[in-house]
Amino acid sequence: MDFQVVVLAGGTSKKLMPIVSQEVPKPLLPVANRPVLSYVLEQLEHSDLKDLIVVVEGADAAFRVAPWISGAYADRLHVEANCVSSVLYTLLDPVATVPEDVGTAGALRAIAHHLTANDILVVSGDLVSDVPPGAVAAAHRRHDAAVTTMLCSAPVPGPTESGSSAGKDKVKKPAVYDIIGLDPLKQFLLYIATGAEVEKGIRIHKSILRAVGQMEIRADLMDAHMYAFKRSVLQEVLVQKDKFQSLKQDVLPYLVRSQLKSEVLLNGVPQAEENGNEKVSYQNNQAAISRILSNASTLSFHERYASDDKETSPVRRTHKCCVYIANSSKYCVRLNSIQAFSDINRDVIGEANHLSGYSFSDDNNVIHPSAQLGSKTTVGSHCMLGEGSQMGDKCSVKRSVIGPHCRIGSNVKIANSVIMNHVTIGDGCSIQGSIICSNVQLQERAVLRNCQVGEGFVVTAGSEHKGESLARK
């Protein structure tokens, strides 16, 4: 399709401490015992989008990610091996490295000179989804758009029925999603407000409504961080707006505002119209806002684009900002928080197990043939037990992922948890709603409830922890 793909894989995200580390950066966080980055790469492969640049933040993270890509995808994907920092890599290290905290737009700006295809597909490396990226690319081409944004159903906020938790992250403000304005045919992106804008309550000026004609306001859709750009438009914005750091917060809203050459849209509303606002407040009850704001005497945005009559058209066409809205039955979640890490692991061994790549048993679980179970030990449905792991007698595992080469004693109870590789758990331990990173040691009779335990930490015998983040200094 003559698309070049940029995968923004991230690095050691501070929001994911302590479950990320130098040894396990964000792209390698395990989801059902597979690196999260593998889910995006395989979806791209299935869509025959194989010309990639994988961008990793920080040399330490790149040092871990590059060998894994080389080993897992050497014969399957063409991954660009370009260097964009002072750190030099060989052809066996197929990642581009950018400094940490440059932002998504900054990362693209750093590799812009390597972008050569007519169209660029940018996707976040933390996206776990069964939406075909090829469908987004095809929609972009069909509309001849400057940018096409993938939107999917926003996840339902709050604690899950399974009790999965992320400790302190569970007690948080109600989730606030994007406010998105669409044309009645749901093809054009006419308005977007994110983050702090939404929390404060947004104002949509009547002058904008007059310019676009009709607009449907939605708060039940999520920007999935998959964008198709016309390369010439993207590179022009990155050069001209050299302070832009975020694709979602900066580049996308700018393109949306500028898709009509209207002084109102580009430069803000004149002072005389400040009192002519429609205010749309996002209510914390999470109900979807879906209503039509219309000026009946004007043409719709779609009708204006369909018109070639320059004299009758009230605005001049410049470029199109389009959307691809995934079917509500599709799975689409980003691993951008500790809670999301727990939720995705739960889903991929549960209702979304078609994403895992594993064959589930008649008991609806996955137990590696090399794993060993003691007498009267039970591994329930929606569970996974990794290669070479051993469990003692009278253990119980419910809705949990246990990684490879773990050593688990007797009378251990594990529920709604993720346990990474090479973890040692002593006799009589109880673990619920927790994330335990690699090489952790839990001494006998330790109790964890809704905790995260960082790499290599030792939990002392008989200790009890609830809602804590435990990590080595």
TrEMBL record:
<comment type="subunit">
    <text>Component of the translation initiation factor 2B (eIF2B) complex which is a heterodecamer of two sets of five different subunits: alpha, beta, gamma, delta and epsilon. Subunits alpha, beta and delta comprise a regulatory subcomplex and subunits epsilon and gamma comprise a catalytic subcomplex. Within the complex, the hexameric regulatory complex resides at the center, with the two heterodimeric catalytic subcomplexes bound on opposite sides.</text>
</comment>
<dbReference type="Pfam" id="PF00483">
    <property type="entry name" value="NTP_transferase"/>
</dbReference>
<dbReference type="InterPro" id="IPR005835">
    <property type="entry name" value="NTP_transferase_dom"/>
</dbReference>
<feature type="domain" description="EIF2B subunit epsilon/gamma LbH">
    <location>
        <begin position="369"/>
        <end position="460"/>
    </location>
</feature>
<keyword id="KW-0396">Initiation factor</keyword>
<dbReference type="GO" id="GO:0005851">
    <property type="term" value="C:eukaryotic translation initiation factor 2B complex"/>
</dbReference>
<comment type="function">
    <text>Acts as a component of the translation initiation factor 2B (eIF2B) complex, which catalyzes the exchange of GDP for GTP on the eukaryotic initiation factor 2 (eIF2) complex gamma subunit. Its guanine nucleotide exchange factor activity is repressed when bound to eIF2 complex phosphorylated on the alpha subunit, thereby limiting the amount of methionyl-initiator methionine tRNA available to the ribosome and consequently global translation is repressed.</text>
</comment>
<feature type="domain" description="Nucleotidyl transferase">
    <location>
        <begin position="5"/>
        <end position="161"/>
    </location>
</feature>
<dbReference type="GO" id="GO:0003743">
    <property type="term" value="F:translation initiation factor activity"/>
</dbReference>
<keyword id="KW-0963">Cytoplasm</keyword>
<keyword id="KW-0648">Protein biosynthesis</keyword>
<dbReference type="GO" id="GO:0002183">
    <property type="term" value="P:cytoplasmic translational initiation"/>
</dbReference>
<protein>
    <recommendedName>
        <fullName>Translation initiation factor eIF2B subunit gamma</fullName>
    </recommendedName>
</protein>
<dbReference type="InterPro" id="IPR056764">
    <property type="entry name" value="LbH_EIF2B3/5"/>
</dbReference>
<dbReference type="InterPro" id="IPR029044">
    <property type="entry name" value="Nucleotide-diphossugar_trans"/>
</dbReference>
<dbReference type="GO" id="GO:0005085">
    <property type="term" value="F:guanyl-nucleotide exchange factor activity"/>
</dbReference>
<comment type="similarity">
    <text>Belongs to the eIF-2B gamma/epsilon subunits family.</text>
</comment>
<dbReference type="InterPro" id="IPR051960">
    <property type="entry name" value="eIF2B_gamma"/>
</dbReference>
<dbReference type="Pfam" id="PF25084">
    <property type="entry name" value="LbH_EIF2B"/>
</dbReference>
<dbReference type="GO" id="GO:0005829">
    <property type="term" value="C:cytosol"/>
</dbReference>
